[in-house]
Amino acid sequence: MTGEVSHLLVFLAGILVINSFLIALARSLKIADFIAHLLTGVALGFIVLGIESLEWTSRIKSWLGMDAGLPSFPGSPAIRFLAFLGLFLLLMDIGFTFDFKFFRRHRLSEAPILLQSLMLLGLNILGLGAVGYLMLKQIPEGQTTVLAIAAFIAALVSLNVGTVLTTNFPTVSALKKPFTNLVQVAVVLDVVALVEFALLHFVAGPVISPAEALAQSLVPLLIVGACLVLMLFPPITRRGFALLEKWIGEYTLPLKIALVLLFVYGAFQLFGDALALLPLIGFGAGVLMRVLSGNRHLEVRRQFFPVASFFYMLPFVYVGYGLVRSWAPGEMFWPTLDFTLLALALISLVFGFFVLRRGEYPILLSFAVFPRGELAVLLLWLAQELGWFPAGFFSAAVAAVVVSSLIGRVLFIWPLEAQPMIQDQEM
Asked: Which of 310, 317, 340, 380 is the least crowded, having the fewest Cβ atoms under 10 Å away?
């Protein structure tokens, strides 16, 4: 037990030291934070491999209480748990920012949001599905082909709209509506990606009769159902807790926390050890937390998520370290990477022509179609953990996400240099 704790503390200290430099470099270059987190894991992996290969480090290991050697990162139960906790909290953060007001009928009718979402979903299915089929049919493990293609598509459906939002892009009046539409499309596709990935659990898992499942999971089903009612009817939930607060005052806060914990408990009990459902459960817990927060959601966000944000980097560090420790790209690595990037570029090009006909900003908006790196890497990692991807395919898919994110970021930096000129022209 002591040795495991010492390993954990040394790894966490190393992660913080390396990440502090890499995250500063990434933000100065205006690239995504998740790339810095991945590189932290890669750097830590090479450092550990170097330490293990040197005989004179045995004395250092003894001083650190690590006489048994450094374990492989993916093999450490504590670090693995922290990585999954980071994934769960990150999805809670995404769910907490979600607002059901977006799905009001008048909002959806203002712009062809559903049309754009369905078009992008269809393009992803055609483009990425073709790439997945062509690559995976070359691998002997043919029985995983359909499942792997579905997981591959689900992971890359989300949009890298954060590229637009986090680079202080010139929001002149002519561009506000296209940006708003793109954000709304991204919200729809994020939810689609999480639901699609969760459904793969039921496709890949054992078939259980509804009667047997209901008998085993009646209480968790009632808990999850009650929480879903609270989520789907926010006005009623807020009025109910407002009345309850008049009775017990500030002690409604422990009750709200208990409801979130019960939702998580019920979901895990209902679906068992289902890694594929972990993102959706985390997202749902975030939505429930937002609804229960009511008008104080901004205060809750300032108090809770800055503390939880420490864990966000851990799954990406875990992935980067694991890529170094078990690097096995195989002969299909470069073809998979090349064709995946080609498919993403074609999807972006088609979307660019679509928005060009609408008189929007086609080139810049089209490159926002590249997958959101954070969500894509997390879903790819879960698919790898579940054994849905053959060896070598996962590393190529992660590399494609990183490269596409870098391309999107670089292409958005150039217009920023012309920001004063654009605003002057508007005036």
From this structure: 310
With 80 as the cut, is the pLDDT of residue 46 above it? yes
CA distances from 409 to 29, 31, 302, 383, 394 (A): 9, 6, 27, 26, 23
Residues in the chain, total? 427
Has residue 427 got a pLDDT over 50? Answer: no
Structural domain containing residue 302:
77-419
Answer yes or no: is pLDDT of 400 > 80.
Answer: yes
404 domain residue, yes or no: yes
Q: Is the pTM of this model over 0.70?
A: yes
Number of structural domains in the chain: 1
* Residue 216 resides in a domain: yes
Q: Domain containing 291 — which CATH number? A: 1.20.1530.10
22 pLDDT above the threshold of 90: yes
Determine contact, residues 159/182, Cβ cutoff 8 Å: yes
Q: Is residue 34 part of a domain?
A: no
| Dihedral angle, C-alpha 206, 210, 211, 212, nearest 10 ° | 20
Look at 416 and 28; give whichever has higher pLDDT.
Answer: 28
